[in-house]
């Protein structure tokens, strides 16, 4: 029987008389001409608002206070959900005046606070395709070609870091999710191999209270967060001292490992950081990897920040040892210049994904695997997931490795020059020689008489950062080191110049002089 004859066997369905056909077509992109016109106008109005109120801004921030913004928003948008919609022209004009105009301009050369990169234009164009096609990366029948591209990207990326054909990976929302996945697989593999315990089916065994994770004191807070989310508690994390360059101290790691063994505790994972948040410090990956092997621990590298150095022939030696890891975190919305969010979790042995694999008949039935249908949900703790691989693919093909490497290298060279300028200025105190492109320092003039100098310096540096933000002149970061307040330049933007840095330093002194009585 031909396919078109199948309908003859089906009962005739009566059309419900209560349904009245409405015209919704123009609100969704389809073959209808009205639909295409509405889509074109929406994109055009959005672009106009971005160009007029965001990209042309000469400041990294307007300086509007939270209270003033709340009042402005309430004036422009009296309701969150109005009874009837407005025209696209009016809507995007209001959004431009109210929201875009008062957003942080991450592409501005003086926006140098956080690991918050300016996104590449080609990646922004890819975002349009990602959101419009709206592929969901959990199952083949929701993503099709997108699944194949992500698999190709993961094969290339995992081989880049591990040099192994058994390696694999999955795109994630960023470092938080990737670090959690690394410790989740580490815990469950240890329980299976060392205690013959299936955590997926049985939960945690009584020995779970003895499990320990080691990382440096400068490691990202998500290591502790992952520990309590995994049911181990923050006490499971053993902080290792850092050396003078804010890297994990291997001698202290050795002492801690011996003490844990003597106490009958179970160290199952060690986390090294390739690019700490404050200093961009890179732990001694090869030495830490050796300890992980000796003690049969899972070795996870958080390379959310520093992973991009692998693209640079000049600087990739700084992260030598990634091939020793069991898993790696890489963020593309940092030094790969991708729009948020875009990260990856990579594993040396794809078989380890079995520890999070589940099958659901409606989504990824087991017989799909028998027929070779790829459903990527088996490698992720997310179900619905964006097609982020496309924007990285578009970036690679529009820019190329050499140009991306030059961008990264420029920011690292700029950081070293910036550190030299600060170090030579008697009004500043430099606290680190940049490993990647983060420079931590503070304004520290001659001692002020009649006050607690340490407290005064803390107030002064906090005030400097606040005043520069309120004026819209620059966006700097603030951090604490040994209870002292410091400022930070995070020089991710390859458009930032040495002249911009010198201008900011002069402005810091100007603000400090006007605030000298605080």
Could you please describe the fold and organization of this structure?
By secondary structure, this protein is of the alpha/beta class. The chain has three domains: 25-105, Up-down Bundle (PLP-dependent transferase-like), CATH 1.20.1650.10; 136-399, Aspartate Aminotransferase, domain 2; 402-514, Aspartate Aminotransferase, domain 1, CATH 3.90.1150.10. The chain is built from 15 helices and eleven strands. A seven-stranded mixed β-sheet has the order 1-7-6-5-4-2-3, with helices on both faces. Helix 1 runs parallel beside helix 3, helix 4 (121-133) runs antiparallel to helix 12 (389-399) and helix 14 (453-471) packs across helix 15.
Distance between the termini: 89 Å
CATH topology of the largest domain: Aspartate Aminotransferase, domain 2
Helix content: 40-55%
Task: Output the CATH homologous superfamily of the largest domain.
Answer: Type I PLP-dependent aspartate aminotransferase-like (Major domain)
| CATH architecture designation of the largest domain | 3-Layer(aba) Sandwich
Total beta-strand segments = 11
What is the average of the pLDDT values?
93
Give the SSE string: HHHHHEHHEHEHEHEEEHHHEEHEEH
């Amino acid at each position: 029987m031909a396919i078109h004859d199948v309908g003859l066997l089906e009962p005739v369905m009566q059309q419900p008389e209560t349904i009245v056909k409405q015209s919704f077509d123009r609100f969704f992109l389809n073959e209808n001409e009205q639909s295409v016109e509405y889509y074109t106008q929406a994109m055009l109005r959005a672009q106009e608002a971005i160009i007029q109120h965001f990209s042309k801004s000469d400041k990294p921030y307007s300086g509007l206070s939270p209270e003033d913004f709340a009042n402005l928003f309430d004036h422009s948008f009296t309701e969150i959900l109005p009874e009837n919609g407005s025209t696209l022209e009016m809507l995007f004009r209001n959004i431009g005046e109210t929201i875009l105009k008062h957003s942080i301009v991450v592409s501005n050369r003086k926006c140098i606070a956080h690991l918050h990169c300016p996104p590449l234009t080609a990646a922004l164009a890819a975002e349009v395709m990602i959101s419009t096609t709206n592929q969901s990366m959990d199952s083949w029948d929701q993503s099709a070609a997108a699944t194949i591209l992500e698999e190709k990207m993961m094969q290339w990326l995992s081989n880049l870091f591990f040099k192994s054909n058994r390696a694999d990976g999955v795109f994630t929302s960023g470092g938080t999710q990737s670090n959690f996945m690394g410790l989740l697989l580490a815990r469950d593999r240890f329980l299976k191999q060392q205690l013959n315990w299936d955590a997926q089916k049985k939960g945690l065994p009584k020995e779970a209270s003895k499990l320990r994770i080691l990382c440096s004191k400068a490691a990202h807070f998500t290591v502790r967060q992952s520990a309590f989310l995994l049911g181990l508690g923050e006490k499971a994390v053993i902080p290792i001292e850092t050396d003078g360059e804010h890297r994990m101290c291997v001698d202290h790691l050795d002492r801690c490992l011996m003490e844990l063994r003597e106490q009958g505790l179970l160290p199952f994972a060690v986390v090294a950081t390739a690019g700490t948040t404050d200093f961009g410090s890179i732990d001694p990956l090869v030495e830490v990897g050796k300890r992980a092997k000796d003690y049969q621990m899972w070795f996870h590298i958080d390379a959310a920040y520093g992973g991009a150095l692998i693209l640079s022939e000049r600087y990739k030696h700084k992260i030598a040892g990634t091939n020793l890891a069991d898993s790696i975190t890489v963020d593309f919305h940092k030094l790969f210049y991708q729009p948020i969010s875009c990260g990856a979790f990579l594993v040396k042995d794809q078989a380890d994904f079995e520890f999070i694999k589940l099958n659901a008949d409606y989504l990824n039935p087991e017989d799909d695997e028998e027929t070779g249908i790829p459903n990527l949900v088996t490698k992720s703790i997310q179900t619905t997931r964006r097609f982020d691989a496309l924007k990285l693919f578009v970036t690679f093909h529009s820019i190329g490795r050499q140009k991306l490497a030059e961008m990264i290298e420029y920011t690292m060279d700029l950081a070293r020059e910036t550190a030299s300028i600060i170090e030579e200025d008697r009004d500043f105190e430099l606290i680190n020689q940049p490993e990647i492109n983060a420079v931590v320092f503070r304004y520290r003039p001659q001692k002020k008489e009649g006050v607690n100098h340490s407290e005064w310096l803390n107030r002064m540096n906090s005030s400097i950062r606040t005043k520069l933000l309120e004026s819209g002149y620059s966006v700097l970061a603030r951090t604490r080191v040994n209870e002292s307040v410091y400022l930070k330049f995070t020089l991710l933007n390859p458009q930032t110049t040495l002249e911009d840095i010198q201008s900011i330093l002069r402005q810091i002194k100007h603000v400090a002089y006007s605030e000298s009585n605080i």
